């Protein structure tokens, strides 16, 4: 890039995305009031109440699923607060949220306020600026993130890992490198590492991690780290077996939604008793009329034996607006008080020993 | 289930889904006429023309991505015809389409015309009928499909497999069991096996295959088949390196869309020259305004250096309507004539040797 | 505008929108095949079959409702063919379709193929080019259309008119001015004038007609033409009373959808017996989850006593794709043969006498 | 209805919709925080800031447009607070919001919390319960509302009225009947009557008012009240001429959105100078990709010369969630302080004299 390009790039990457802090905004009275309205205000309110019920139910393990570009959009703080307060016990996510966005920020990089208007994507390409709708990312930063994953690969014993195991190593990497001390406290990967909250990314190579892994396997054809997606599924099923009562809070649909619902059936396949998910809330803008999973109703999931229909709610809203409201409601109700730190990572490590 | 339930179940599972046959419907004049209209008719027409351009360009490898419940909805025949006529050279899909739906039908099972109205999903659950919007599936059949995957696992050498390798074994299983002779000819998995068309499922455990694999790994804790999702990414990158000029025809978004776009960047990470995808068509009902990948524009993908903007088209339509029209257009233009059978599976096997 | 602007304008307004001709495309076998698929292909097929049932039922008066920018998008020919073959007996529309677009083209003007990308709307404004998504209109032409409406106002007796009466005068204007002979044959307004098919535009001033009327009333403050929207409602109710059995084919939602459904209740208010609409098909991309009318289900309309639920179908698709398929299906089934020319305009004129 | 039906009806109509009170919820810090996020949170925040700018700009007349079922959904209180604090100066609405819902509640009737699940719309029909998605209405109450409109018609001088004039008579009716004293204070129609805020309903017969008017005209064929929709357009144009600087806050799209944008062009048609709308915010879930007006961008409206592009924002969210947040933001910023009571009704009455 020449000098003009550099200054143009600087001009475009000025203002950084700030993560919203639900602790500052007590939305309880407003969300309660919305419960006597109609349409999505009422659904949002009911969704918040069901998410709060999951917190009140101390037996209930809470699964959080993440799809879409949530971290780059300013929702990282919401998720970190849920983790810190034991409000979520396991996470299933797309790779972008965990690696390209959360781990990326933990390395000290930022997302930038951009725009979708009057922008030439060919120009952005030349400037090495990646666009997510109205947000900009410095591709040069992202390449460092890819390379860091490759570096972690090189440091590990060469064997199959579940994505959870690998992501825990990413957490360990952050913990052991004090140059990230200023950034890691706000990181999902790091906080989950500290609290023993498992993070599953069923399509782990479909993100920045994939670039690091491809680099690693290409240069180590004979013996290398591999990512065993079946092990992911086995491990998350073990979480369900370890804590049968469960609720799910789904942001978007996609693979994470399907994956976490399927564990009820997986228990059955293993001839183990496990109840359907007792609580389920999904924030989505997807439509049910294309028959795809992302917008499929939670009632439909009941026909599959995955989700019970007593406490389920679809909330048709975009996540950047709805997630702070629902999570903030439960946070300010303080029902998380008294919830145990479940540390499923510890349980999964033990289970492994049992089977070994 | 008691006798009443059995007869109720039979009553609900009467009429089977029939796959549409694009060979019977010459839509070329209609789609051409739509090119002089506006809105989605014009977009559909342009999308069809770009897909046809991919066929005319004999250097171009065509990637097909599949997300949503497409096979259960009657689109299997469309895809099989594309494969048979060398109109697609590699497939990236969600697991449900390939395992729960295509392989499932290859075993002799069917999907049923159902309804989303006046149905109690709790009752369906008790009858072991799974619902996909307006379609019914016999869960008892699906359990046999899960078990068949488990059986295939047991028969394989215990090592990490890419999903492609595993799916090829599924094809081999169909080829070697003549009891499926009546069903397998219409199967994507089987036809791809025969033609050497690789199928990648980056989140392979997120489907019926996952149930089989979990069963397998649970009962074989020490030594087992694993699914290496990083290997998937490496292999599909090798396809791009083997045939640099490429086009993508995307049905829905999700992981398959992201995965196939990322290979351009992966080549760069490996310091190999590879052009952006030259042609790109996506059929989707997703909206770009939530910033998620499924609805993100192909222009946005250009900022990431993944897709060129000369021949790209988003078609905002539901796939059951739009896919037969676009695929049918290209089929009846006969531009596939003279296209080589690329047999990327053979190339990937060789590459493996190179690295071993 | 200076010379450069003129040549830029000419450059942008080159290619004209062409109306699709359903007579050229026999879609019957394809639409029938879609009936055994799922999701919207099946809904589209069922919608086409119900619209065809309306044709077969010779007692049934067919109401067509039009919302959205349909004429400018290339659907005028579809509608004209329905009128010519007695396949619709009354039309309820937004003003833009009837005045700004159909009447506009009948005056000899055209819509142009445009684009939504890389266009500066401020520049378009300076060039007097109006944009509808990917379509361009010459604002200078539109001003002539506004003025023509004003001219018609001046020529009329000064009294309240229903929109139907006014639109019939627009048809008469076309019939009496042979300079429009080349264009009027393809016009909805003109063909309805000839066949006595009433056109109602309940928000008549909300379009180019409004500009003409405002000009007229401003310059004739004491005595002027007025548009009585209550009379519209009374007249369309009389149509229902004159022909109690009815079906509705709705393109989009909005005021036309509500208006035509309400006439069943209006009959009841007048203590007249009239059945609910027996057949109802709506093509829409609207969602039901905001509680608004456009996306509200036809089942919901049954709770209001407006639409029966035996033969009703929502088709979730964009109109430029779905309308030619549904209308084309019924056209090629030829069930319109033997349908009478109902000429409701004649009946409404008589009714007026009865009351006078 | 028999006794069983009556008790079933009572059971279904138990819980009433409660209107949210924005005065109780200071959302300013949260909405400001959302301004540094991405996607719709940022758009919502910017929309709120632009609506607040309209308040700060004391020269600016604020037009509020209402489409969708807003009053029945619990948004009446929001709108009444905007009126009381001079935060809106004119309203353009669909008929349902103003007559069937607001005036209806001013007569002492209520909307009920209902459900869209497990409900048989045929049963609702027999019980005379009307459904709006998840909300129930007693059709017997609605018939009284229809009849009240008919009664008002009978009491008026027989001449053409603009919808504004007629709605003002509805306000007067509430003011003069003390039996409504308990309900009318919370009514849009009544508060606008008191403050001189004009309400325009361009498709006035497309609602409960239509039923009353049809009854009136049917029984008074020779001399009757009529609703002149052209006069509506002329009057609202005069509002723009009286106060050229303007902003629009649009809830949903439809006829109200189009109508209020068109007045800029109408001024031009009358050879009067009037600037484009300076500020524009639209809350909508409509999509731009069908080319229809409801989802068309405000940038597109600039090509038509209707809306300036400096302060415009589309907010993609459902109104029950987004409207309290945007209106609440501006309310708690207190920028409405010092805004004059514009009383456009008084100005329109004077204008009338000028022309007479």
N-to-C order of helices and strands of chain A:
HHHEHEHEHEEHEHHHEHEHEHEHEHH
Helix content of chain A: 40-55%
The averaged pLDDT of chain A comes out at 96
Distance linking N and C termini of chain A: 53 Å
Question: How much strand of chain A?
Answer: 5-15%
Protein name (chains A, B, C, D): Deoxyhypusine synthase-like protein
GO cellular component, one term (chains A, B, C, D): cytoplasm
EC number (chains A, B, C, D): 2.5.-.-
Organism (chains A, B, C, D): Rhodocytophaga rosea
Provide the fold topology:
The structure is a homotetramer of 356-residue chains.
Chain A: H1 3-12, H2 28-34, H3 39-56, E1 61-66, H4 71-84, E2 90-93, H5 95-106, E3 112-113, H6 121-126, E4 129-132, E5 135-138, H7 139-155, E6 160-161, H8 163-176, H9 181-184, H10 188-195, E7 199-200, H11 208-219, E8 226-227, H12 229-242, E9 246-251, H13 254-269, E10 277-284, H14 298-303, E11 307-316, H15 319-333, H16 344-355
Parallel strand pairs in A: 1-2, 1-9, 2-7, 6-8, 9-10, 10-11
Antiparallel strand pairs in A: 3-5, 4-5
Helix pairs in contact in A: 2-3, 3-15, 4-10, 4-15, 5-7, 7-11, 8-10, 12-13, 12-16
EC number (chains A, B, C, D): 2.5.-.-
Family (chains A, B, C, D): Belongs to the deoxyhypusine synthase family.
GO molecular function (chains A, B, C, D): deoxyhypusine synthase activity
Offer a few descriptive terms.
homotetramer; 356 residues; alpha/beta; Deoxyhypusine Synthase; six-stranded parallel sheet; three-stranded antiparallel sheet; 16 helices; 11 strands; 52% helix; globular; Deoxyhypusine_synthase-like (chains A, B, C, D); DHS-like_NAD/FAD-binding_dom (chains A, B, C, D); Deoxyhypusine synthase-like protein (chains A, B, C, D)
């Amino acid at each position: 890039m020449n000098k003009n390009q550099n200054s143009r790039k600087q001009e475009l990457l000025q203002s950084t995305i700030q993560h919203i802090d639900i602790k500052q905004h007590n939305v309880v009275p407003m969300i309660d009031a919305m419960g006597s309205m109609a349409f999505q205000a009422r659904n949002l309110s009911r969704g918040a109440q069901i998410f709060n019920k999951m917190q009140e139910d101390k037996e209930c393990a809470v699964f959080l699923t993440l799809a879409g570009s949530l971290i780059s959009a300013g929702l990282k703080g919401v998720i970190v607060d849920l983790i810190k307060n034991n409000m979520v016990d396991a996470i299933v996510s797309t790779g972008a949220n965990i690696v390209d966005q959360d781990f990326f920020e933990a390395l000290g990089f930022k997302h930038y306020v951009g725009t979708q208007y009057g922008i030439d994507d060919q120009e952005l390409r030349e400037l090495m600026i990646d666009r997510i709708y109205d947000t900009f990312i410095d591709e040069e930063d992202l390449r460092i993130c890819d390379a860091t994953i490759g570096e972690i690969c090189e440091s590990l014993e060469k064997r199959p890992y579940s994505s959870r195991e690998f992501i825990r190593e990413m957490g360990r990497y952050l913990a052991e490198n004090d140059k990230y001390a200023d950034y890691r406290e706000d990181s999902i990967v790091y906080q989950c590492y500290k609290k023993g909250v498992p993070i599953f990314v069923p399509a782990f190579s479909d993100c920045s991690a994939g670039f690091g892994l491809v680099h690693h396997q290409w240069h180590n054809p004979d013996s290398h780290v591999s990512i065993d997606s079946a092990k992911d599924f086995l491990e998350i099923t073990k979480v369900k077996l370890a804590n049968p009562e469960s609720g799910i809070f789904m942001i978007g649909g996609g693979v994470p939604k399907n994956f976490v619902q399927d564990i009820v059936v997986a228990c059955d396949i293993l001839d183990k008793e496990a109840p359907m998910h007792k609580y389920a809330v999904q924030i989505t803008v997807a439509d049910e009329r294309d028959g795809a999973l992302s917008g499929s109703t939670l009632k439909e999931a009941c026909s599959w034996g995955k989700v019970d229909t007593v406490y389920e709610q679809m909330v048709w809203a975009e996540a950047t607006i709805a997630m702070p409201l629902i999570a903030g409601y439960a946070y300010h109700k303080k029902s998380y008080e008294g919830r145990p730190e479940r540390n499923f990572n510890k349980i999964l490590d033990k289970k492994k020993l049992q089977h070994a």
